[in-house]
Design brief:
This protein is of the alpha+beta class. 34% of the residues lie in helices and 21% in strands. The chain folds into 2 domains: 111 residues, Serine Threonine Protein Phosphatase 5, Tetratricopeptide repeat (Alpha Horseshoe), CATH 1.25.40; 190 residues, Jelly Rolls (Sandwich), CATH 2.60.120. The strands form 4 sheets. The chain has an 8-stranded antiparallel beta sheet, covered by helices on one side. The chain has a 4-stranded antiparallel beta sheet with strand order 8-14-11-12, with no helix packed on it. Strands 4-5 form a two-stranded antiparallel ribbon. Strand 11 and strand 12 form a beta hairpin. Helix 3 runs antiparallel to helix 4. The protein is globular, with a radius of gyration of 21 Å. The relative contact order is 0.12. One of its GO terms (molecular function) is iron ion binding. InterPro entries: Oxoglu/Fe-dep_dioxygenase_dom, P4HA-like, Pro_4_hyd_alph, Pro_4_hyd_alph_FE2OG_OXY, TPR-like_helical_dom_sf.
Length: 323
């Protein structure tokens, strides 16, 4: 049985023959094999088989799109908007999405959600819900219905196929490891999957937290099933040079049992409601870790709780290094 060049290349990589795999893909790409071109683009984005090269990845994606690769078109749109391998270009990304939506129902669905948003020409929100102060110590505010039900469903849909047991950054190595105290499934929506709906939501989260979008880690979506929880913890990272200064939690659904967010220091227990966002500060005004921000996601008793989390750093980050 004859396998495609992309399949052959993946097999060769699995047995440690990456240079041969690259030669096969490059040769096939030169002949116009769109799957080979797409695989090369993915490898240049991932940076494992070859060194990460976002500019080269963008060029390869553009070639794949010109041949008609649908997934390449959606990825190119995401990278155009967030500026990976180039300058962020929201209007250009929207134009590409409108073109893709003519033939791709997934792109059309994203465009429909985008057109319903109150955003400006740069994708930033033109209005936010009136915030409610829930606590001063810890500093916790709520933005009721920051997201619509359709937007919440979109985030869950983007994340669903990528869910895996929760992870955390190891402060000693800076790498992701299995989470010792959070028993949920989750995934980070990295820049290659940050479609325009997700990008606009991240802009809204930045506005709600009073920060720049570049300070936010990739949006993480979590699913808690019965018995799963996030035990009492701080969101800060031990000895981090670029510390987390705030957390934004967005509840994506309701109608399940348990799953409240609890801050013992403020005797504050928040019952989740779909679309609501909670913003709290993790550092004090003098830059120390705010111990009062210690919180827990209480166990879910029935149903499934879906939550989106964005951790905000003091300074802009490179999302490719932690996604």
């Amino acid at each position: 049985m004859t396998h495609s060049p992309a399949a052959n290349a993946l097999h060769l990589v699995s047995i440690g023959r990456a240079s041969e795999a690259l030669a096969i893909l490059r040769s096939a790409g030169d002949r116009g094999d769109v799957d080979a071109i797409m695989q090369l683009a993915v490898w240049h984005l991932a940076g494992d088989v070859v060194a990460r090269d976002l500019v080269q990845a963008r060029a390869l994606l553009a070639r794949a799109v010109s041949i008609g690769h649908v997934d390449a078109a959606l990825m190119e749109i995401a990278l155009t908007a967030n500026g990976s391998g180039g300058t962020p270009d929201w209007p250009g990304a929207v134009s590409l999405l409108r073109t893709a939506a003519r033939a791709d129902p997934v792109a059309l669905g994203q465009l429909t959600l985008l057109d319903a948003m109150a955003i400006d020409a740069a994708g930033a929100p033109t209005a936010l819900p009136v915030p409610e102060t829930l606590s001063e110590t810890p500093d916790v505010i709520r933005f009721p219905r920051l997201l619509t039900a359709a937007e919440c469903a979109h985030l869950a849909g983007v994340a669903a196929a990528m869910l895996e047991p929760a992870r955390v950054i190891d402060p000693r190595t800076g790498r992701w490891i299995a989470h010792p105290i959070r028993t949920s499934d989750g995934t980070a929506i990295g820049p290659a999957r940050e479609d325009l709906v997700v990008r606009a939501i991240n802009r809204r989260i930045a506005a709600a937290s009073g920060t720049d979008i570049g300070q936010g880690e990739p949006l993480t979506v979590l699913r808690y099933r019965p018995g799963q929880q996030y035990r009492l913890h701080l969101d800060t990272i031990q000895d981090a040079a670029n510390q987390r200064v705030a957390t934004v939690l967005v509840y994506l659904n309701e109608g399940y049992g348990g799953g409240e967010t609890h801050f013992p220091a403020g005797n504050l227990t928040i019952t989740p409601r779909g679309g609501d966002a909670i913003v709290f500060r993790t550092l004090t005004t003098d830059g120390a870790i705010d111990q009062s921000s210690r919180h827990a996601g209480l166990p879910v008793t029935h149903g499934a709780k879906w939550l989106a989390t964005r951790w905000i750093r003091a300074d802009p980050i490179d999302p490719w290094t932690i996604s």
